[in-house]
Amino acid sequence: MKMDAIKVENLTKKFGDNTAVDNISFTIAEKEIFGLLGPNGAGKTTTLSILATMLAPSSGEAYVNGFPVTKEQDSVRKSIGIVFQDQSLDEELTAYENMDFHGRLYRIQKDVREKRIKTLLELVELYDRKDSIVKTFSGGMRRRLEIARGLLHEPKVLFLDEPTLGLDPQTRNHLWEYIEKLNKEKGITIILTTHYMEEADKLCGRVAIIDKGKIIAMNSPEELKDEIGGDVITIKSPYNDKLYALIKDMAGIKHSETHDGKITISLPNAEERVMEIAGLATKNGLSISSLSISKPTLEDVFLHFTGRNIREQEANGGDNMRMFQRARMGGR
Amino acid sequence: MDIIYTIWLRSMKRFMRSKSRIIGSLGMPLFFLLALGFGLNSVVSIPGMSRGYIGFIIPGIVAMSILFTSMFSGIQIIWDKQFGFLKETLVAPVSRTEIMLGQTLGGASTALIQGLIILVISLFIGLRPESMTGFMIALGFMILTGIAFTAFGIAIASKMNDMHGFQLIMNFVIFPIFGLSGALFPINSLPPWVKTLTLFDPLTYGVEGIRYGLLGTTQINPWISFAALGGFTIAMIAFGSYLFKKVGV
User: Which of A233, B100, B159, B229 has the fewest CB atoms found within 10 Å of its own CB?
Assistant: First the structure.
């Protein structure tokens, strides 16, 4: 029987009155790349922290590599590698020393440790910088080093919490390649959290969309996109509301929204229906300033399930929190 | 044991690498030694002390530099907490007690090195240790002092989330511990109620023990000093481990 890498059962975590994770359940098979997708503050990191035994759940249970996280913490910890959202390297030590420290903490024999450190540092292209102090590293190099470190004890499951947050697009692409390679070549199950739709779309075999502590949709990115019904048409018009009232009841439309002065509708075979929509608008004397057809993205999926745009929600909540945190950190 | 060694090794690497920190933390003890020692040497005479005031305060200054270095080392884990490195240690399959003991020994070792540097400098301004045995006794008390106060620092740091409270600790914990110990004055010459107060200060026993080792004179029986300081050390390790176990990240 194939064992589940991760099994989560009715997991709940409360902080006072605030329910960060609200009765979620899911399973992840071995060798999957699974994404927890959602805006900041949705409960992704809290879920990950519980799976990594860093936080105790309020109720429910989770199993990692078959071990319950509330009871067999050490076995869980040996099975996982984790790359935290915030950096967790010792900046005063060299890249090699950071790796070596980790290897010793996980009680890896000296000869094995040395060999693996070399292999992994080569994999993330940092071997030539192994004796440089981490303080001198760029954000991308640090991330790569952290991923290499997380793999040193050959975990069955690798947790990546916002692995590419704050990295430039080029480094991000590079990291994605590494992650895919690790999954394919080493057969490591990967669970990552992200609020970049593109990242989830590109990397993950399956995605759980999480919002306000609840899983609102879970499937492969392709099927999630199909679920919202074919293509997406976005229309801009000075008569937004009138136009929306007019076309929202047209035949074949799976879903419609007005949003930021834009109308988005989901429907199959959009190319064939565009003329019909344009004709309807002209007949009623409503001009259209722009109209575009696109294949749906996970962004549209999120909008479909929550009625909100993931970015706008961040600006309202998540980013403020983050800035607040930074201000606090900076003010020490 | 290997985990304790690993954490200790990290502390030592960081310490050896930060030359400015080594030199910086020598500043204050040296200033005290030179300013007070030479400044008051001719005006202060201590009964039963043939080496003058400067000879009297050398053990006190050694203890002081150990106190400051070890407390700072213990409190340093707040940085690890803030910069995230503590997570890396806490998520590893090792016990919190091992981590805490490793941190404690690391801090105590750096403190011991600082104390030894002061000792060596003191040799140039007139310190003449009585005997090898005496030196070993002093060393023993230095090690105990270092362990006790690093563990105390870790206990404090476990309860703090950032460095904001550091001034408070400095002014209301570290300085009083230093000031109330017999580092700068003979406790037998104090009014009885002040003397009672100094006897509640664990550093007093460290200072008197080091002084007994280096100079052969003391105002507290060395066995009593050893028992008091040893007891305090064990209590601090237990207290520090207990609080460190509760640290969340």
Answer: B159
